[in-house]
Amino acid sequence: MFKKEPHIKALSNLKNSDRKKLLQTIKTQTNLETYNFNNSNIIKQTNFQTTNPPSIGTIFTNDSNIPIWFKSKHNDLLYPTVFTCWNNHDILPTLLSHDFVIQEKLFNGANLMISGTIPPFDSRLIPGTLCGIASVQDPKRIVWAIGVVKMNMPSFDKVVGETGVAVEVIHHFEDELFKIFKCNDLKPDEFVKEQLNTEHPQDNDVADEDTTRKKEENRESNEPDFEVLDHFKTEDVDYFITRSLYYTITQDTKVELPISASNFISQHINKNLPDISHNEVNIKKTSWKKTAKFLKHFEKEGFLKLKGKGDDLTVVGMNKTKDELKNFVPYKIGKSTTPSFSLSSPNTNDKSDTKGMMYSETFYKPINHAKDLLKAVPTIPTKPLYTQQEIRDIVTSYINSKNLIDMKNKKMILLDDLLFNMVHKRQSEANAAPRTMMRGTILEPILANNFTEHYQIYRKRNGKGELMEDVEPLFKSPQRGHLPQIDILTEMKIGRKVITKVSNFEIFGISSDFLAADLRKLCSGSTTIGETMTSPKTPEVQVQGPHGQIIIDHLNKKFGVPTKWINYVNKLKNKKKRK
C-alpha cells in the first residue's frame, strides 16, 4: 500500500469518544481485550492518498506521531503497523520466512510467495487473515512486514515445488509510511523493552500471596524467567566475544593496522563470531558494555596495543604470542542474524578516520553473464552482493582454472567466450575486438557490464546529530546506485535577496526539522522547509544569506557527513574591483 510516498494532511487529535470507539474496534477485530494504546492518552489521525496502488484511507498515530494503525476508506479492516506489532507480539499470527527473502524481496515491494515461507504454519493463517512476517533466524520473532494471507497455509506440510502468492504485503519496515513520519531512528528493541515494562509493572502496594508463591516457584525451576531479555548470560556473551577476539588475532588475515575501534569491532569482531545471533551477542551485552572498555581491558591483558584517548581509540598492534592463543582452536564462523543486512569480508571504499564521520561501502549485484561466471567457480559461496575484492578473486580463480594466462606475455589474458562477452557488451565493439586483454584492466569492464552497483552508508551519529556508542548501517540493506551527495546552492533571488538551499540530506538520515532548527541558530536567519523545484518529493531547507561554508562545517561536525559527499554551488557573481 505504501510503495510510493503517500500524500498526507495535517494530523489532528482524535476525540475522546472516537478514541474509545477505535480501541473497542481493535479489541473486537483482534480478540484481545487487554490491548491498549500503551499509555498514550492522545491518538492522532490524518487522511492519506497513495498512487501505486491507488488508495485512500486514514492513518492513526500515538502522541509521538508514530503510526500505529491505518485503514482503507472502502474497507473496515484495521491494519497494525510494524511498530504496533513490536509492542504487541500476540496481535497477529506470525508467518516465518528467510532473512534474504524479507530483505531482498519484501523490502523491495514484492509479495511473499509460498516457496519463501517456512512450515509448520499457525492454524489461523487462512485466506483473508491479517498476519505478520518474521525471520526464522531471529529468535525474538520480530515482525518486519504486515500482509493479508491468500492461501490456506495450514494445509501445507511442505512448500518445495509449490507456487502462488502466500501473503499480499500491505506494509513493511522502512516503507514510505515509515519514511514520511520520520521514524528512521526507531529500533525494535526500544518497543520490546517498553512492552515488557508495560506488561509486568511492579506494584509495591499490593502484595498477593499466590502471585508471590508462583514467582518463587519460577525462580526455582530450570526454565528462564519471562522478564529476561537475553537468551545468554553476560558471562556467555563475554566468552563468545573473547573467542572472536582470539580468532581475529590468530586467523583473520584481513585486519589492516592501524584500524579505528569501531571498524575493528564491526568488520572483524562481529564478523568472526560463531554461528549465533548477533542480536544476543554483541559488545553492548557484555560486561564491558562499551567498545572502549572492551579494548582497554585486552590492552591491559597484553593482547592489543591502542592509541588515543577516551572513546576515540585506534588499534595499532596485536600480540599473537600470548599463551592463551597458542592452544586456540579455530572454529567455523557464522553469519549474522541481526535485522541489518551484512556481508562477509566487506570492502570499505570510503572510510574516514575522523571521530563520528560517516563512511561508505560499495557492493555489486551480479546480472547477465556474471551469473554464469559464478556458476563456473563453485568454490565461491553464492550470495546476493559481492565486494570488488571478492569479484577480483572470482575472476582470478576462473582465469587460473581455465589456464587463460598468455604464456608468451603473462601480463595478458586470453579471453574465452564467457570473458569476451563480459568485457565487450556491444556487438559493434565485439566484432573488431582482440581475444586478449591486459590483466590489470579486465576488472573494470566486467564490473561495468555485468554488475549493478549498490552502496551502504555507516554512521556514528543519529538523525539528531547525537553520537552513538557503535557504528550502524544507515539502511536495512545496501541501496542500488551510486553514493548520493548533499546539494548546497547559494543564489540571489529577485529583489537581490541572497539565500542558501540544502537538499538531498534525508537519505543520510538527517531530519529536516533538526537541520532547519540548527541553521536558524547558526546563520541567525529565518529558515523554511519545502521541496526542490526539480524533484518535488525531495525535502529542502532554505536559509537567508550566503552560508554555504557554515552549513558544510555543520554537516561535518554534527552529522558526520564528509566534505567530499557535499556538492556546493555558489551562483553569486564576484564583485569586480574598480581600477
Automatic annotation (TrEMBL):
<dbReference type="InterPro" id="IPR048248">
    <property type="entry name" value="PUA_eIF2d-like"/>
</dbReference>
<dbReference type="InterPro" id="IPR041366">
    <property type="entry name" value="Pre-PUA"/>
</dbReference>
<dbReference type="GO" id="GO:0006364">
    <property type="term" value="P:rRNA processing"/>
</dbReference>
<dbReference type="InterPro" id="IPR036877">
    <property type="entry name" value="SUI1_dom_sf"/>
</dbReference>
<dbReference type="InterPro" id="IPR058886">
    <property type="entry name" value="SWIB_eIF2D"/>
</dbReference>
<feature type="compositionally biased region" description="Basic and acidic residues">
    <location>
        <begin position="210"/>
        <end position="224"/>
    </location>
</feature>
<dbReference type="Pfam" id="PF01253">
    <property type="entry name" value="SUI1"/>
</dbReference>
<dbReference type="Pfam" id="PF25304">
    <property type="entry name" value="WHD_eIF2D"/>
</dbReference>
<feature type="region of interest" description="Disordered">
    <location>
        <begin position="196"/>
        <end position="224"/>
    </location>
</feature>
<dbReference type="InterPro" id="IPR001950">
    <property type="entry name" value="SUI1"/>
</dbReference>
<dbReference type="Pfam" id="PF17832">
    <property type="entry name" value="Pre-PUA"/>
</dbReference>
<dbReference type="Pfam" id="PF26291">
    <property type="entry name" value="SWIB_eIF2D"/>
</dbReference>
<dbReference type="InterPro" id="IPR057429">
    <property type="entry name" value="WH_eIF2D"/>
</dbReference>
<dbReference type="InterPro" id="IPR039757">
    <property type="entry name" value="EIF2D"/>
</dbReference>
<dbReference type="InterPro" id="IPR039759">
    <property type="entry name" value="eIF2D_SUI1"/>
</dbReference>
<dbReference type="GO" id="GO:0003723">
    <property type="term" value="F:RNA binding"/>
</dbReference>
<dbReference type="InterPro" id="IPR015947">
    <property type="entry name" value="PUA-like_sf"/>
</dbReference>
<dbReference type="Pfam" id="PF26292">
    <property type="entry name" value="PUA_elF2D"/>
</dbReference>
<dbReference type="GO" id="GO:0001731">
    <property type="term" value="P:formation of translation preinitiation complex"/>
</dbReference>
<dbReference type="GO" id="GO:0003743">
    <property type="term" value="F:translation initiation factor activity"/>
</dbReference>
<dbReference type="InterPro" id="IPR036885">
    <property type="entry name" value="SWIB_MDM2_dom_sf"/>
</dbReference>
<dbReference type="InterPro" id="IPR003121">
    <property type="entry name" value="SWIB_MDM2_domain"/>
</dbReference>
<feature type="domain" description="SUI1">
    <location>
        <begin position="486"/>
        <end position="559"/>
    </location>
</feature>
<protein>
    <recommendedName>
        <fullName>SUI1 domain-containing protein</fullName>
    </recommendedName>
</protein>
<comment type="similarity">
    <text>Belongs to the eIF2D family.</text>
</comment>
<feature type="domain" description="DM2">
    <location>
        <begin position="362"/>
        <end position="453"/>
    </location>
</feature>
